[in-house]
Amino acid sequence: MKSASKSASMIITMFTQQNQEMQLAQAKKEFDEMAKEIADRRKKLLFQLEKGKKKEVEKVDASKAEKFKTMDEHRIPLEELEQRFQTNAKTGLTKEVADQKLLEHGKNQLSQKEKEPWYMKLIHELTSMFAWLLWAGAALCFLAYGLAPEDPSNLYLGIVIMVVNTLTGIITFFQNAKSEAIMDAFKNFIPPETLVIRDGQQQKFPASNLVPGDVVVIENGKRIPADIRILESNEMKVDNSSLTGESLLLLRSPECTNQTNPLETKNLAFFGTLCKEGNGKGIVVFTGDNTVIGQIAGLVESSGGDDTTLRRELNVFIKYIAVIAISIGVIFFVLGFIIGYPAITNLVFAIGIIVANVPEGLLATVTVALTLTAKKLAYKKVLVKNLEGVETLGSTSCICSDKTGTLTQNKMTVENLWYNNKKYKGLNREKMGPKYHYEYDLNEIGFKTLHETAVLCSEATFDTTLPQEQQIKIQNSIGLNQQQKDQKLKEAQDKWNQNFQKMTCQEKPTIGDASETALIKFFQPINDIIQTRQSRQVAKDAENKMAKMPFNSTNKYAFLIVEYETADSHYCLLTKGAPERIWGLCESAYNNGRIEVKDEKWEQSFLSINEQFGRQGERVLGFAKLHLPKDQFPIGYQFNLDKMNFPFNKQVFVGLISLIDPPKDNVPYAVIKCKTAGIQVIMVTGDQPVTAAAIARQCNIITEKTVDEIMKEKGISFEEAFHQSNALVIHGDKLTKMAIDDEGLPEDDKGRQLQEWLSKPQLVFARTSPAQKLIIVAGCQRRGHIVAVTGDGVNDSPAIKKADIGIAMGITGSDVAKDAADMILLNDDFSSIVVGIEEGRKIFDNLKKSIAYCLTSNISELLPFLGFVIFRIPLPLTTVLILCIDIGTDIFPCTTYVFEEADIDIMTRRPRSQDEHLVSGKLLVYAYVQNGVLSTYCGYFQWFVTLYDFGFYPSDLLFIGVRETVLPKDTDVYDPNDPWFGNSNLKRIYKDGKCDGEFPSDEVEEIDWIYANHAKLDLRMAYVECKDGKLEEVFKWAPCNVNLVSPYTKRPYCYSTEASNYAQTSFFYGIVIGQITNYQGLRSLKNAGTFQGFSNYYMFFGFWVEFMLTIALSYVQVFNTVFGTRDLLFIHYGVSAIPFGLIMLLWAEGRKYMIRASKTNSNYPSWWERCVVF
């Protein structure tokens, strides 16, 4: 029975041991079959999903990206390799050959893309499409001034537009330059020096001078200086996580273990990766851009990047505005000819209409909004390299995230303990605190035994030495001699020691492999590991050496013998290793301090828990011990580790500890928040499918059984299982097979299989290459997603560059990834992305509010021109006062929208579709037709009231500008009883007071309502007509309610064109009042105004600045002169505009109430949501 049990155990053990590699093995088999075909076709296939790209460029880059796939340097015999590189594995290159190769291959460094000069970057900011629109507006103003120099307002307007345009460009330039400066501080990719064997001598050389064929010595803790083929390995392990996404350390050896895939073979180490354990020696096979990382960096350049979504939206908006402005300008230019205006006057008016439609202050608002948000995100440790990328993040509908170092911590952590035949959650005591209720009991004998065994069997320690980066920085300091450098090193070490004592165990650096590091960080808070180890001295073997055997990949275990005094023993054998190997070495197991013989129940329990840990993607370590009997192993016993003169196969099983690279603490919540916001989170990793799926579950990316699990559970095909689950894990080689299957299909039919996979809401891509990540991103974009890609490794960088918004990790991220990204999470906190999404959505909403706010006043600026041209009323608003609104009173409130709180549903609504634009037809209708008209009422009503107070009935103002009459002299005085009303020129023409028909054509002219040519005339003497043979007044004049004297004419405003200047200022204030109420109505898109509250103190500051500007424009004489304004009485200070302002506010709140009240329970939105929400 026992042997049958062991036989079954061996079968299941073999299955368990290879569980995580089964899918990979199958994929490798497929890969072998397709290798030749891939090599021939790969160029054409990798980027076929990308439309609109230059095909020739794609082919070159795809070939470069896959060059390492066809390399043979890892599989050819060593003698052939030596011949190829003219080197010797023992003595290395000769100096002459090395110098010649350096000339041929160049420096061993990645090519840096040529930096754009600062002045070109500044010019780029000053020549965006929006900036060009403003430059065109300024040019038109100067043209208008050239045509009509008597009106300097166009000159002032042109100058101010140029100043505002220049300032906003400079602000954006400096903000982006600041981000670039922070980026430059990240650069630290290649080690400065490395050990090289040349001419048979080991010497230090700058790593940048390495050439193919050099023999290099790899030291523990150092970066690999080039792509090398391993010649010797002393338990050398490398961290390839930045390249492949695997968090486990990988053993390197001289044997080629994978003929077809260089990334999988053990006899290659890659440039930029880190040697974490052991040491070795190897031959350099590739340097610089020819390394794997160099090829991937080249792929980054090929992937390119399109305009940000905000830039595209602003360009669409500019086109809208340009078309509207030019169309209206042309229409009224033609109407002017029909009416009979001179060409120059028509052109000046057309320019005025065009300029009135250009929101001059909006560019400044966008710049300020993005800059302030970038600073806000910087405070939250999010570096924005491109300001416009903030909004792109807000419109994101899909996040393709790397696993290792992005979703996970990129460090192994204890996950579970199994002892006494029970599983316990291995929560860290330092992290959770002393008051937390732990599943394991520190005082339980089973835990104590496992604790002691694990600590004694591990050799990892905490590293108190100064970090290598700091040492390199000091050693490379310019201007210091060696003595000064040594002093600085000592000071830095002392400071480091002080900081080290303050660090938590989780923060402290370690020396040792990832698994043992996880063990000591778990057990150190329980009891000091040094104290535990010092409590048991390692026994001596026959050669007087420590009786310990290190772990090796053949035996899959490590053991040591320690002096351990008990009643029956002087020595104790402690063993650690692969769980199935340790289990096979044991005949019994500890259970609550008792030793129980292994039986079928124990066998099933062990196999079950080990398989469970494997399915969860956890790495498992087994532990065993054996107290050696006193009578057989007395003090001074000569242990022989080679002959195993002790009962090694009769140990007592202690327990299991499972390890995993866990998700970062706030990642699961952040993923849930993304899903709530309608954002799909896809894991794209180079790690094994089993591990990827397990982490995806912990991150809440996968929440149900996957298609593969259902397929195995029910014994059905993949196609049948595909429709029974929303969760899917795809191996990267399936993407390769898909690309080959798609060859020859029409362009629209390619990628159909990928689109089916992407339709799953819970999706993981495992074992993906950098080029495949590009295909995935392109597929998501093809589905209409705005894609954000997060990552930290070199393998993530092409996809980061290709994405609509690329996000790199600041701490663990590689230099290549950071350089490709648009944003960098300085604290590596994935949840910061959620903050960024919220800020981005808020920016989009607030920019909508700002645009609606600005366009509303545009109508108030345009309609007065139209009234002046069509109805020939006096001009209610001058172009210079339009300037005062656009870049004066409007710009401060417009900017304070940035500080408005987001609508309550901002993170529960679906991401905006690509059909939903920043400026939509609904927004234009709201701004132009609804609020724009009401705002114009505010201005006009105030204007009519003001002119009425100065003697003009509103009806009399229609077509008053085209009335020709005989003008009086400046010295004439109005007399209602005089037949000529005091007009001496009429008296000269009609001496007897009688007239006949029209006035003589050579005596009449129009009143100048625009300039001050007739400002001193009393218009009651001018507007006289001949009726029934006698002179009569044209209008029945209103009473002069305000007897106010103009400071310029020294005459009353009543019945003069000077009243128009006064009324223009009043019209201006009416618009200001309307805009204040308009601001309140636009503070939220759906929330009630009362819900929004008044916590935005910047709003009050904006209103205060607006109020002070109006005061200055009205009561500071120099401004009166420059802007043509007048000092107003309080009754004309926009007071009459308040009723229409309140109507505007009531309409806005009523509109939002109907949107909220009509919300349906179904997925189909109501009419108000479809047709009113902008």
TrEMBL record:
Its main location: membrane. Pfam families: Cation_ATPase, Cation_ATPase_C, Cation_ATPase_N, E1-E2_ATPase. Residues 17-44 form a coiled coil. The keyword ATP-binding applies. It comes from the Eukaryota. GO terms for cellular component: plasma membrane. PROSITE patterns: ATPASE_E1_E2. The keyword Membrane applies. Belongs to the cation transport ATPase (P-type) (TC 3.A.3) family. This is Cation-transporting P-type ATPase N-terminal domain-containing protein. It comes from Paramecium pentaurelia.
